[in-house]
Amino acid sequence: MYVCICNRVSDKEIKASIQDGATTMRELYKEHSIGSQCGKCCQCAKKLLNSELIKIADTQVQVA
Q1: Do residues 22 and 56 make contact, with C-beta atoms less than 8 angstroms apart?
Q2: What is the rounded distance in angstroms from the CA atom of residue 62 to the CA atom of residue 7?
Q3: Residues in CB range of 48: below 8 A, 6 or more apart
Q4: How far apart are CA 28 and CA 32, in angstroms?
Q5: pTM given for the model
Q6: CA–CA dist 33, 29 (Å, integer)
Q7: Residue numbers of the domain that contains 35
Q8: What does the pLDDT read at residue 64?
Q9: Disulfide-capable partner of 41 in 4, 33, 54, 60 (CB 3.0 to 4.6 Å)?
Q10: Rounded-to-integer distance, Cα 21 and Cα 19, Å
Q11: How many distinct structural domains can be found in the chain?
Q12: What is the pLDDT of residues 32-59, one digit of tens each?
């Protein structure tokens, strides 16, 4: 699914960036230009960022 239509950024690309270490919207902006055009993608991208970071945190807690 495309999160940012203006820049053709999919949810898979955002998830991959998060797995590679992106933890903020600023980092997603630098890598994918999220929100640089119309800005309609920001809310969806932020929800995706938060849910992926929670998954990563849950995994780390279970391992420890």
Answers
A1: no
A2: 36
A3: 3, 11, 14, 15, 18
A4: 6
A5: 0.89
A6: 4
A7: 2-63
A8: 63
A9: 4
A10: 5
A11: 1
A12: 999 999 999 999 999 999 999 999 999 8
Tens of pLDDT, residue by residue over 19-39, are 999 999 999 999 999 999 999
Query: CB of 32 within 8 A of CB of 63?
Result: no
What is the end-to-end Cα distance of the chain in Å, rounded? 33
Q: DSSP string of 6-42?
A: TTTEEHHHHHHHHHTT--SHHHHHHHH-TTSSS-TTH
User: Where residue 43 sits, what CATH number does that domain have?
Assistant: 1.10.10.1100
